[in-house]
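ESCALATION

Customer reports they have been waiting on this structure for their group meeting. Please prioritize. Original submission:
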Amino acid sequence: MSLVARFCVLIGLAMQLLAVPAAATERRVALVIGNSGYSNAPVLPNTVNDARDMAAALRKVGFEVVDGVNLDKRGMDQAVTRFARLAQDADAVMFYYAGHGFQFNGENYLVPVEARVEDEVSVQYETTRLNDVMTALNFSKGVKIMVLDACRNNPFVSQLAKRQATRSFSVGNGLAPVARAQGMVIAYATQANDVAADGIGRNSPFTAALVREIEQPGLEVATMFRRVQKSVYDATNGRQTPELSLSLLGDFYLNREETDSDVWRRIRASDDPAAFNAFIQRYPTSFFTIDARTRLDLIERRAAETQERDLLAREFAERERALLERVERAEKVRQQAATDLAKRQNEAAPAAAVAQPNAPTRPQVPAAGTLRPAPVPVQERAERERLAEEVARRERELASLETEKRRLADERLMLEQAMAARMGTLTMSAPVQPSLSLNAPPPPTERSLNERPTAEAAAPAPVVAPRPQTVRTQNPRAPSAAMCSEILLRAQLGELTPQAKEQLQLCR
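Update from on-call: job pushed to the front of the queue and completed.
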């Protein structure tokens, strides 16, 4: 392959890589129109509110919205034109209209605010054809949604009906059915050829239900509109039933935010209390809120116990440091006393040898007139006895400190085991020495308290009688009560491992 060909291949690969993020991001466009202040027709009380609330709801779920209220014929045509241009490269498009609309000769028309509809000529030139909006929607190759809350009762039907006797055209109530295309969803505020209610609140019954359902994440579009149908039917006591025409090959979600179930699956194994606090605040009525509170309580309890264990570890470390300092000081004093005693003994030995160079092995009574060896001065003997006593006393002190150290290790071991049982785990924070009551020698350490200079005669350490042990007859594999409590909590959260399931059986 030539250098130029290789360069072209690399350029192509780079362009494909750059195109991946763009394809992964879904682009959504919506056109929202609400007409209320009509010049030649009754004013509609809540269509502007309907349009504004719908536009806000669609922006929250990721739509780029072209919106307008109280638009005349030119304004509506301009909005449709702008929407058609934006729809060309969109993955999903939606049109929402709230206002007067009617059917004429089987075709639907939307009424601008200044329109005067008196005959078929004014229908053609003073209104907006719904088919023009359909053409704009078809510029998109993705999902297309049309929502019509336009079947309001209006006087144009009666005005046109008066001319029906002399002219060959037909006028009907409400809107005519719209021919659906592949990949399109069409939602009517009421059934075809029927009239929808304006409602007495801020919004019409249909739009109020639709905005409310759009705010619910994770609802597939067909499910969402079925819930809207149920809400409108209940709110109007059965007088109005929305109609849905759907031709989608796959699922589509207006609100792609995570549901409470999605969030719970993502955070359930987390150890971050902030995640569970945020979940509880965001979904206070969720089915998983109880599990979130349980998990939060478990994390907070573990944090408190870990803090307590760290505090105990620091306390024991300080006590061990102080004990080690005492041992080192006692060892230095003992070594100095032993050195002094050995020095005095070494100085006295040559003097005795000089006084009696040929001394017999057994003591004999010296002959008359011979010189006796010089007796050891009383002061020297007292000093030796004092040094020997000092050495013995320091040996006993070191033995006592060794016993204290082992007692401290025993105490730490018991506290560690109690803390581990409370936290539902048998792992220790640090290795500890075994108790003297186990009749086992302490493990070798970097510095033993029993180390003595080899040239010295160390006094024997006192024997410590083993403390009586209480024998508990129980299943050695049975977990503690605290561990059983935690296993039950994890069972509620569905986080049991095979080993934990076996332990759960032992808890029962």
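Sent to customer with the following note: Residues 13-24, 165-169, 425-461, 469-473 have pLDDT under 50 and may be disordered.
Escalation resolved.
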